[in-house]
Amino acid sequence: MKRHLISAADLSRDDAVLILDTAEELARLADRPIKKLPTLRGRTVVNLFFEDSTRTRISFEAAAKRLSADVINFSAKGSSVSKGESLKDTALTLEAMGADAVVIRHHASGAPHRLATSGWINGAVVNAGDGTHEHPTQALLDAFTMRRHLSGEGPGVGQDLAGRRITIVGDVLHSRVARSNVHLLATLGAEVTLVAPPTLVPFGVESWPCEISYDLDAVIGKTDAVMMLRVQRERMNAAFFPTEREYARRYGLDGDRMARMPEHAIVMHPGPMNRGMEITAEVADSDRCTAVEQVANGVSIRMAVLYLLLGGNESAVAADRTEESK
After folding, report:
1. What is the arithmetic mean of pLDDT over 276-286?
2. Structurally, how many domains does the chain consist of?
3. Does the structure show a pLDDT above 60 at 180?
4. Which of 117, 238, 287, 306 holds its CA 20 to 30 A away from the CA of 72?
5. Are 176 and 184 in contact (CB under 8 A)?
6. Is residue 272 part of an annotated ligand binding site?
7. Are 267 and 258 in contact (CB under 8 A)?
8. Residue 176 is assigned to a ligand binding site
9. Which CATH number covers residue 22?
10. Does the keyword section mention Transport (predicted)?
11. 56 a known binding residue?
12. Binding residue per annotation — 290?
């Protein structure tokens, strides 16, 4: 793997499979009475969040702590950033504190790349979501979830998403999750279709490794997994569709549409949900919806990313057994 994780497009197929397989090993910790490994003892991971977050921030914190790393949570609110401190000065402060890895979420697309290439810090940089650009660990946890449900040969096999048909529906224009998923799923051999109103399809999408459709009903019957995206009203400064009711009617997933999906197909959502808009309560609470499972899988994926970026070059569980035998 490379030194940083900034974009899903930076991952080769071997990189992606290594992360997924490592996460599969680490997921077994959930069955242990003590869910902790000593592999990153003495390392410091900083969660540097300039945007509000619940799932991602807590997930990275849990992942680092389960690997025995020291964790510093930095929120822009209540810090010197609110007084005008620049990203550079914040980074230099973290470097002075000895950060081995910085997990950054920022409202500006490109901020993690700037941090990783500036020379301001020597540690690894992990993109936890930047503007409307990318969210690579979300794509990894989504692929991990799909692999567990859709593999005909069981988890841990690198080819099990090849040829699978994945449909991503909704506000693609503002979605960093959609961008990262398209790149990663294409790398893993899946066939991705984006479904959205024309107003919510980004400029230049023709160059993405995916198909485009404006008709959810035309593709719902032949998909292996459908991922519903939240309509991000906080990023909208204009009317992108007539009404919420009209959006839900054409692009929302309800019980009738779910019934037309193949029997094995799953429903995914990165959260948070707008129940009643892109997804109904009936679908969100059904056995086919993996939203809660995705949150749990996020901890395993982020453990794998931190472990591999901070020097892990063998099985994390094997390393734990070696430590215990001393």
Report:
1. 94
2. 2
3. yes
4. 117
5. no
6. yes
7. yes
8. yes
9. 3.40.50.1370
10. no
11. yes
12. no
